Amino acid sequence: MILIGQYDSPFVRRVGIALKLYELPFEHQPWSTFGEGDRIAAYNPLRRVPTLVLASGEVLIESTAILDYLDEWVGPGKAMVAMRGPERRHVLKICALATGLADKAVSLLYEHVLRKKKASKIWVDRCEAQIGGVLALLEKERAAVKTPYWFGTHIGHADIAVACVLRFAGEAHPQLFDTARYPALAAHAAHCEALPAFVEIVQPLAPPKG
Ligand SMILES: N[C@@H](CCC(=O)N[C@@H](CS)C(=O)NCC(=O)O)C(=O)O
Prior knowledge:
The protein is built from eight helices and four strands. By secondary structure, it is mainly α. Strand 1 (2-4), helix 1 and strand 2 form a beta-alpha-beta unit. It is globular.
C-alpha cells in the first residue's frame, strides 16, 4: 500500500495515523500537491491528497472513503468507529465538522498564499466565520466530555480528525486558533499529539508558494 501526500495536510496525516494505529504496513510518498502534481495525477486526476494505492493497484481517493476501507479491513473489533447506530452517527458528525473545518482552513491558506492580487474579503470573511463557528461548537462538545477521548477510553476517528485539523489551523492561521479561547480543544490536541503515532506522523506546514 502506498500513501501519497505530505503529513502537513490534516487529511493525509489523519489517514497516516490511522494506518499506524491499525498496524497496517504502508509506503509513504510525500509528493507535494503543487510541486509534484503530475506524479499525483498518474494515480488521481484530481491531483489531491491523500491518495492510497492498494497492493492490487486499485486507487482510493478522499480521506473518508480511505478510512472506510481501512475500517472494513481491520473489522468491527478494531475499527475506530462503531459500525452502526447513534454513536457512529455522532462520530461521523464530529469528523465531518473537523474535515469541513480543514477544508475551510486549507481554502483560506490557498487564498492568502496563491492569490496574486489582494485576497477576496467576502471569501476570507466567510471562511473565518465557518472556522470560528466550528471551533466554538467543537469546544463546547469536547468540554462536555470527561473521558480521555471523545467517545470513551479508546482513541477514535473523531479524536484524530480533530487533533489533525487543530494542528493545521494553529500553524496556518494562528490568529484564528487562540488556545486560550478553546481550552478543551487545546487539551485534546496536546493529549493526542503526545501519542507515539502522532509524534511519528507529522510534518511542519510547508504552504504552496504563490
Ligand atoms: N475532501 C478531501 C480533501 C483533501 C484535500 O483538500 N487535500 C489538499 C491537501 S491538504 C489537496 O489535495 N489540495 C490540492 C487541491 O485541492 O487541489 C479529502 O478528504 O481527502
